[in-house]
């Protein structure tokens, strides 16, 4: 086990220095957390946009978990030191003679022979443990005198490319058009966390020496060394899987209003109001168009037009208080002379009481309301061009 070399006095000094800063922040965070939990609304069903983000994260998590398994087809091969239980200072001939026992027919493969030709010094073995066999045997411009050349060959394809692919997934699942507003709230935080993972990975790859950072027994040559390349290649997708799983949980509890609920901002409320208004105007326009089409059809059809004319003649006669000359809906024969409903005694009495204000109807206020309604409907018609 690696000793950190930090004494209890150092830890105590750090706690004394940071406690006055961290404790009030922790208390405020706890209080705000309680307020958020107590004021959250009822949970709702998962929106379709957030469901798309969760589906992407599910498949990404499953993909990274499969990549982290040591028996997957793309997993790196086990280190020759671990496979043969050899020490870091084991002679090359002895090491590869042991390796041949694990190969079919007790014969080394072409890649083993090429790797054997590169195992010329302790530095080459360190490069093998740090960057893997492909970098040691495949780099044409790298030299053992300058280990940074191997690092430059290793970083773009083995470190940066996986993190770039992971950041594309994070950007997709936090995109507002694809995942919705709730998932987009986490975009900055998820991006910073993903970049932090990349920085940590780069720091480990650039600074860690698999031999110098190993236990003393490995440095002394009594135990086989472990391969940093093998460990980090399997650990990286596992970290991605855990990261994406946490992202999925946060998006789910946010989208369903179970946690981290934030009321819509004023801009969002205005946008929602404008959207509702546009929907209402679109519906009204559709209804007006349908009414225009219906009216046009009635005017062009002789039977329907005659019935419409008969209806309006009846309405006019009833409004004027005269007997109706035709029956509604019957344009072939005139109706019998009947007394208008407006001339009945009860109707006349009720109208007289209403006009006198005895029925609880304010005729003046009703007239003003009718005038306002007419002015609102016909607003702008006087200025319209013919």
How would you describe what is shown here?
By secondary structure, this protein is mostly helical. It has a domain at 48-257. It has 17 helices and no strands. It has helices at residues 8-38, 48-68, 80-84, 92-100, 110-118, 122-131, 133-138, 148-173, 176-179, 181-184, 187-207, 216-219, 228-255, 266-300, 302-319, 345-355, 363-377. Helix 8 (148-173) packs antiparallel against helix 11 (187-207). It is elongated, with a radius of gyration of 41 Å. The N and C termini lie far apart (93 Å). The model is unreliable at 1-5 and 322-338 (pLDDT under 50). The chain crosses the membrane at residues 6-30, 51-71, 153-174, 186-205, 234-255. Residues 321-341 are annotated as: Disordered. Keywords: Membrane, Transmembrane, Transmembrane helix.
Question: In short, what is this structure?
Answer:
The protein is an all-alpha fold. The chain contains 17 helices and no strands. The chain has a domain at 48-257.
Considering the chains and any ligands shown, give keywords for the structure:
single chain, mainly alpha, disordered N terminus, 386 residues, 17 helices
Topology:
Blueprint: H1 8-38, H2 48-68, H3 80-84, H4 92-100, H5 110-118, H6 122-131, H7 133-138, H8 148-173, H9 176-179, H10 181-184, H11 187-207, H12 216-219, H13 228-255, H14 266-300, H15 302-319, H16 345-355, H17 363-377
């Amino acid at each position: 086990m690696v000793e950190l070399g930090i004494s209890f006095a150092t830890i105590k000094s750090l706690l004394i220095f940071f406690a006055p800063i961290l404790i009030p922040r922790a208390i405020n965070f706890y209080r705000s957390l309680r307020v958020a939990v107590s004021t959250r609304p009822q949970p709702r069903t998962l929106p379709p946009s957030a469901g798309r983000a969760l589906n992407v994260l599910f498949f990404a998590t499953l993909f990274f978990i499969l990549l982290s398994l040591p028996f997957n087809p793309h997993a790196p091969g086990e280190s020759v030191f671990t496979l043969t239980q050899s020490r870091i200072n084991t002679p090359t001939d002895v090491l590869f003679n042991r390796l041949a026992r694990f190969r079919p027919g007790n014969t080394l493969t072409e890649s083993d022979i090429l790797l054997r030709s590169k195992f010329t010094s302790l530095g080459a073995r360190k490069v093998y443990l740090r960057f893997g066999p492909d970098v040691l045997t495949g780099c044409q411009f790298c030299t053992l005198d300058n280990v940074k050349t191997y690092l430059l060959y290793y970083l773009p394809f083995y470190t940066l490319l996986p993190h770039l692919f992971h950041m594309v997934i994070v950007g997709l699942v936090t995109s507002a058009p694809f995942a919705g507003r709730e998932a987009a709230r986490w975009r900055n935080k998820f991006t910073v966390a993903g970049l932090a993972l990349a920085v940590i990975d780069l720091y480990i790859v650039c600074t860690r020496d698999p031999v110098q950072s190993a236990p003393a027994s490995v440095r002394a040559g009594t135990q086989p060394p472990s391969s940093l390349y093998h460990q980090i290649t399997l650990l990286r997708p596992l970290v991605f899987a855990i990261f994406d799983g946490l992202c999925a949980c946060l998006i789910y509890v946010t989208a369903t209003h179970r946690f981290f609920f934030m009321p819509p901002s004023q801009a969002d409320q205005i946008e929602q109001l404008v959207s509702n208004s546009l929907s209402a105007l679109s519906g009204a326009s559709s209804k007006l168009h349908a009414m225009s089409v219906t009216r046009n059809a009635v005017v062009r059809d002789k039977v329907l037009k005659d019935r419409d004319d008969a209806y309006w003649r009846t309405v006019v006669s009833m409004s004027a208080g005269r007997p109706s000359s035709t029956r509604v809906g019957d344009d072939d024969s005139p109706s019998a002379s009947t007394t208008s409903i407006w001339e009945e005694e009860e109707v006349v009495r009720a109208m007289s009481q209403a006009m006198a204000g005895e029925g609880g109807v304010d005729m003046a206020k009703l007239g003003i309301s009718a005038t306002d309604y007419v002015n609102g409907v016909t607003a702008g018609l006087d200025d319209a061009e013919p």
